[in-house]
Specification:
Helices cover 26% and strands 40% of the residues. The chain has 96 residues and is of the alpha+beta class. It has a single domain (6-92), classed as Alpha-Beta Plaits (2-Layer Sandwich), CATH 3.30.70.100. The radius of gyration is 13 Å and the shape is globular.
């Protein structure tokens, strides 16, 4: 069995995405897909998601990011693709 090629997704989620449980939603979605990475609130009001795994799983995560949890209103998701950096698990980054 061959191993699927790993990729890296960096997404910025725009809209009403802070204060509505968005990071916890992303954490649960990513862990259910078994992808590694991080999620964090940004000062500009967006949520930044970095995820690594097979492309088909990252595409599924993107679908979740575009929908968001109840209470969120996603207006736009920007995405960048790159080579993976070897992240091991998915975590929430809390910034002060």
């Amino acid at each position: 069995m061959t191993q699927l090629r790993q990729e890296r997704l960096v997404a910025h989620v725009h809209g009403r995405v802070q204060g509505v449980g968005f990071r916890a939603f992303v954490l649960e979605s990513a862990r259910s897909l078994d992808v590694a990475g991080t999620v964090q609130n940004c000062r500009d009001g967006t949520v930044r998601v970095e995820a690594e795994g097979p492309r088909h799983l990252l595409d599924r995560l993107l679908v979740s990011l575009r929908e968001g949890p109840p209470g969120a209103r996603v207006t736009r998701v920007t995405e960048e693709w790159d080579d993976p950096r070897g992240l091991a698990r998915f975590i929430i980054i809390v910034t002060a």
